[in-house]
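Progress against Task 2.4 (sequence-to-structure conversion) is shown through the following example record, which the project officer requested during the mid-term review.
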Amino acid sequence: MINSKKSKMRNSLSGFRGKKVGKFFINIFLIIFTIIQIFPLIWLVLFSLKSNSEIFGGNIIGLPAKFLWENYRQAFVGGKVGLYFINSFIVTGLTIVFSGILASMASYAIARMKWFFSKTVLMIFLAGMMIPIHAALLPLFIILKNLNILNSPLALIIPYTAFALPIAIFVLTTFLRTIPRELEEAALLDGCNVYQVFFKIILPILKPALATVSILTYIASWNELMFAVTFISKEQYRTLTVGIMSMVGQYSTNWGPIGAGLVIATLPTIVIYIMLSKQVQKSLISGSVKG
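Structure tokens generated for the chain above:
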């Protein structure tokens, strides 16, 4: 009996030590992985505070010899990053709002209402996920030119919203199918009409999925370059991606302010993800992106 107890204690101790060793190596791996993921952002911040001579003089990774905060002023004033930032904010914000409203309504009609062509309409929307933006570039340019809305924010908002709808409808319809129909039936019995059911019952429940859709739409619209450089030629309507690209000179380029512009363009993405990360996790747990 005593020997068996001793052997059990040894086994438990060895198992405990094995778990501690396993956790130690997992933590080391996670720390290394985190450093690898964060390093490009740290490098970009350091890059934005250097001069051309330091960047091309061998000090690419290290700390700047002198922190040139002047680069940020040059980016805002000389590079007009502030104007481009506002333009991108307006275009991306309106795209998120319009695509969210349209996609939520369309998804509710497809997933919750009974009508003959619901599956066909869903397939047509999902087919839009397979269309590359390069294939739609020339037809869209001709359409926007005929509508006289080139060189205006609408020239970007309309295509961005159209390309955001397929993935948004895919996410929202899948999420809506997980919601019990008893909620709507109870609301209808209480005297609510379809619009009241949607806005008062369904829309609040859709918040986690809408957060996921908003982040996907934001990333696609905020970082988009092809449409922005093709449909906008006036400087006052340029978005941040085109504006930063225009800071590259034909014969010489001051890379510090460009790095500062890239840091400014990256910060909203980090802030938005931190604000909506909990909603996105809820959405993933609820199965909103399950195929």
